[in-house]
Design brief:
Blueprint lengths: L6 H28 L5 H27 L3 H7 L1 H8 L22 H32 L10 H12 L12 H62 L14
Length: about 250
């Protein structure tokens, strides 16, 4: 039955459900970590997290199974693998709305830059938030830990992602340090995206300026040729043919 469904149809059918599942995953995990839920409430939150995560795993495996070339699909859909491992990354697709705002897509290059910037910023914000939850969950019950509240975790995640690193808050667990390494690489990647995007914008603006100047120069040359032609016509006596000049294009 599944083999008769192509990937596009499957994504249309499951897309809204998985988006809701990703929101449920984020809310349940955030609530469990921030409130330090215990007992039945913690069990309920863990069930929501597990069920929604299984939904993403099943979706990934189904799409892999209906692909004509499984290995090619796997290699060209690494972003989908990341979303499967971290379901909240699907929320980045909500950022698509901001890539269609009026005045942001004048050219193909501008549209591409807009998408890169919007998706990059949204991905980084989600990464910072998830890293805050992860490091808080790993650190706050450990002796000599400096990250013991969500505010501390969020501050640490922000300074780590921006590669500032004041050093006032430092993870002491292996899990917390792994989260820190991932966050640092994410911050460096964001800085690279911003730098490349700005460089592309400056280059395009410069090229546009050169094109305008070139167009103006061509217009001036044409006007000068017209003036010369009019002057020659005025100097030729009536009844005479104007001399041909192959040098004038």
């Amino acid at each position: 039955m599944i083999q008769d469904v192509d990937e596009q149809t499957w994504r249309k059918r499951t897309g809204p459900t998985l988006l809701v599942a990703s929101i449920a995953f984020l809310l349940a995990y955030s609530w469990r970590v921030i409130t330090e839920a215990d007992g039945t409430l913690a069990l309920l939150a863990n069930i929501v997290v597990l069920v929604t995560w299984v939904m993403f795993v099943v979706d990934y495996l189904v799409r892999l199974s209906i692909a004509a070339d499984h290995w090619l699909w796997f290699r060209t859909h690494l972003a989908d693998l990341a979303i499967t491992l971290i379901p909240v990354l699907r929320l980045v697709r909500i950022a698509r709305v901001f890539t269609h705002l009026p005045g942001l897509r004048r050219t193909k290059a501008a549209a591409l830059r807009t998408r890169i910037m919007v998706y990059g910023l949204f991905s980084t914000l989600i990464l910072i938030y998830i890293a805050s939850l992860q490091v808080l969950d790993a650190e706050r019950r450990v002796p000599d830990a400096t990250i013991t509240s969500f505010g501390d975790a969020l501050w640490w995640a922000c300074v780590t992602a921006t590669t500032t690193g004041f050093g006032d808050l430092t993870p002491v667990t292996i899990r917390g340090r792994i989260v820190g390494v991932i966050l640092m690489f994410g911050g460096v990647a964001l800085a690279g995206v911003i730098t490349a995007t700005l460089a592309s914008w400056v280059f395009e603006r410069g090229a546009h300026g050169d094109d305008s100047a070139d167009a103006a120069t061509k217009a001036e040359v044409r006007a000068l040729r017209d003036d010369i032609a009019a002057l020659r016509a005025a100097l030729i006596p009536p009844g005479e043919e104007p001399p041909s000049d192959d040098r004038v294009p």
